[in-house]
Structures are given as structure tokens and as C-alpha cells.
Design goal:
single chain; mainly alpha; DUF4112; membrane; transmembrane; 2 domains; two-stranded antiparallel ribbon; 7 helices; 163 residues; 69% helix; transmembrane helix; DUF4112 domain-containing protein
């Protein structure tokens, strides 16, 4: 017999403002006639640099608060990954704006914290996750360097044969 999923339990009273802030940033407004919700975060990102930085700062403060109230190292790493992904992809004009309306990093982080509290998930330090992300970053960085090297070599060959 399967147990029903636990109800959406509110977080600790000390973290209610985190839940409220996540709702404001990601789900505060509803498009009439649809189930689509969005918050202040994607709207802020229409303001170049300042909007992205302010949204990233608010998300960072929320993660720090959650870390102070019992989030494990592994959980904090996952949360930081969510807000970094939101900030990096959100900085790309047009594509990032569309991404921001769908990827709700703050709401995801609150859900991660709920799972951590209710089910005891995401225990540990998160070292494996960090190492994995760094390896992917290093491989991508190497590919970019190789691409630049090939582009420079092509340009050098083109210039040297032209003259």
C-alpha cells in the first residue's frame, strides 16, 4: 500500500520570509485565463546588469538564510547551482528572459529545503557535486580554448595566404 505524499508543509517559522520572497520572485503574478505564473525575477532581468545582480543578490541572501537554519552542505551546493544557472543563462538577452520565466530557481530551492526537512534528503557536504560541476566546467573551458585556437590558426592561414 502506497503512502500518500506529504502535504505542502510550511517551513519553520523563521523561514517563512524565505517562502514569501521565493513566491514574490518566482510566482507572485498569474496570467489571466492560464495557469502560468511569474514573479519579479524575470521582470527585473529586463533591466541590464542591475536587474540581474539584484535578483542574484536576493537569491543569495535566501540561500545563506537557509544554510544558517539547517540546510546541509550538499543542499546549499544544489541551491547555489540553481541560482548560478539562473543568473548565467538569465544574462543572455532574449533567450535568458524566456528561460527566467520558466526556471524558477528560488521556488526550486524552497522545494529542495522542504524535501530536506521532511525526508532528510541531500545530506552531506556536496563535494561530489562540486567536483562534477568543476569537471564539466573545465571540459567546456578546454573546448572553448581549443575553438579559439582553431579560429586563430584559420585566421592566420587565411591572412598568410592572402598576402
Amino acid at each position: 500500500m502506497q503512502t500518500p505524499p506529504p502535504p505542502q508543509m510550511p517551513l519553520d517559522d523563521r523561514l517563512k520570509w524565505v517562502e514569501s520572497m521565493a513566491r514574490l520572485l518566482d510566482n507572485q503574478f498569474k496570467v489571466p485565463g492560464t495557469n502560468f505564473r511569474f514573479g519579479v525575477d524575470p521582470v527585473l532581468n529586463f533591466i541590464p546588469v542591475v536587474g540581474s545582480l539584484s535578483s542574484f543578490a536576493m537569491s543569495g541572501v535566501m540561500v545563506m538564510t537557509m544554510a544558517r537554519h539547517g540546510a546541509s552542505g550538499a543542499l546549499v551546493v544544489r541551491m547555489l547551482f540553481n541560482i548560478l544557472l539562473d543568473a548565467v543563462v538569465g544574462a543572455i538577452p532574449v533567450l535568458g528572459w524566456i528561460f527566467d520565466f520558466g526556471f524558477k530557481a528560488n521556488q526550486r530551492n524552497v522545494e529542495l529545503l522542504r524535501h530536506h526537512y521532511i525526508h532528510g534528503k541531500y545530506q552531506g557536504r556536496g563535494t561530489g557535486f562540486v567536483v562534477g560541476v568543476l569537471l564539466v566546467f573545465l571540459v567546456l573551458f578546454g573546448l572553448v580554448l581549443y575553438g579559439i585556437w582553431q579560429l586563430v590558426a584559420f585566421g592566420w592561414d587565411w591572412v598568410s595566404t592572402a598576402f
